[in-house]
Amino acid sequence: MAHAVLLPSRRSVGINTIFCIGRNYARHAAELGNTTEESPVVFLKPVSSVIHEGSAIVLPAISSNVHHEAELVVLIGRGGRHITRENALQHVAGYAVGLDLTARDVQDALKAKGLPWTIAKGFDTSACLSDFIDAAQLPDPTELSFTLHVNGVLRQDGSTTMMLFPVEHIISYLSSIFTLTEGDLIFTGTPEGVARIDPGDELVVALNGGPSARFIVSKA
User: Fold this and answer.
1) How big is the CA angle at 156 (ends 31 and 144), to the nearest 5 degrees?
2) What contacts 24+ positions apart, CB below 8 Å, involve 122-126?
3) Which DSSP category does 90 fall into?
4) Which contiguous run of DSSP H or E holds residue 159?
5) Cα–Cα–Cα angle for 22, 27, 33, rounded to 5 degrees
6) pTM, entire model
7) Worst-scoring range by mean pLDDT, 89-93, 140-144, 177-181, 185-189?
8) 103-155 pLDDT, tens digit each
């Protein structure tokens, strides 16, 4: 069953492709020993990985070291191809805050062998979403801040001012390669502070001026 996204306007759309951007914050790249790139690093998640506010994060049996990554999430409301940076924000329907969960031990092992690491990013419950706020209420995504608290302790405190590739650049870049469609999601990258999560942990992710979401971690 396709997941639905509900905006404050009560217009519901189905989620299509989930694009994710890696290494979009220099300090996060540095904390993992990665280099930054001249173009966005793009990977995908399946729609089956999505969960919403109040759902349980289920740690996969394949990993013993799943990390949280708090991110601004963009919902595409109008598709297109070869979208210019100047027009990119006109294609955005809304914004959410989310978690891109990563099986770090699995990812590291696969990367060391030069193999794709889709299973480290795309397992069930690895794409956690808050509700979306209409883009008209947040017209400038270049100055948004968001936080993640784990068990009441601040773990990540990010600002889109620190993005290497801002939202309009990401949309323009993706649309130069893929035809974007209504319902596509873009996880825009995470700031520094990623760390392991364990069964019983409570994660609360919040977008300043927008929605928040709470998730409890369980084990498969």
Assistant:
1) 110
2) 122/44, 122/45, 122/46, 122/49, 123/49, 123/60, 123/62, 123/63, 124/48, 124/49, 124/58, 124/60, 125/49, 125/51, 125/55, 125/56, 125/57, 125/58, 125/101, 126/45, 126/49, 126/100, 126/101, 126/102
3) G
4) strand 153-159
5) 75
6) 0.93
7) 140-144
8) 999 999 999 999 999 999 999 999 999 999 999 998 899 999 999 999 999 99
